[in-house]
Amino acid sequence: MNPVRLTGRAAIGLARMVGRVAIFAGRGLARAGAHPSELARQVLHIGWLSLPVVGLTALFTGAALALQIHSGGERFQASDVVPAIVAIGMVRELGPVLGGLMVAARVASAIAAELGTMRVTEQIDALVTLSTDPVGWLVSPRLWAAILCVPVLVGVGDVIGIMGGWLIGVNVLGFNSAVYIANSWAFLEGWDVVSGLIKGAAFGLIVALSGCWFGMTTGGGAAGVGRATTSAVVAASVGILAANFVLTGLFF
């Protein structure tokens, strides 16, 4: 019976962990607007300061996608579909996923390191002593800032990625500029764009929640902060890819 017992113990532990994280997220989301100044600071940190890395990632992705689609399309005499596929691929899939992963690499690690350091140096305990809710002060602004900012970053990344494909298409592959732009927008539908923005909001929640959870539950001094930072980035990245699969199945 030992294998059965171990399986049951693992399942119960997983269910308990999921419940704890869900309650933690619910408490954080429920405190929306409690500290607007801190929310504004986190919007600057998560949104504005993440724009360069998201923009560069989208630019090179769109350019590489145009080259790859043109190379593959020539085998089937279908290279004219480059503008449409670049646009659809960016707004539906690559823009949200790569934008989310770049934000996860930058933001989840920073949140986990900051909150983890506060935990091991007992600053969070000091907040409790001063009758300040740590979740409302530290977690809620980060969750809501990520939910609000990542869709904006995804939208900007979509535009930059399509521009990257346009630059390569016109200057390298020989497309007419006006025709390329017209074909890019002709095959896009409103739901393509909206679905990508919804994915961005979900990915933002995953990123901030991973950073906050591992940061707030840090223990073990400096080594614990390092483990929390690594775990936050890994959890956010895997969560984004899993959520992308689920949302794509629901949307399309």
TrEMBL record:
TM region positions: 46-67, 143-168, 197-216, 228-251
GO cellular component terms given for this protein: ATP-binding cassette (ABC) transporter complex
Keyword vocabulary terms for this entry: Cell inner membrane, Cell membrane, Membrane, Transmembrane, Transmembrane helix, Transport
Membrane topology note: Multi-pass membrane protein
Recorded superkingdom: Bacteria
GO terms, molecular function: phospholipid transporter activity
Biological role: Could be part of an ABC transporter complex.
Stated name of the protein: ABC transporter permease
Provenance organism: Paracoccus halophilus
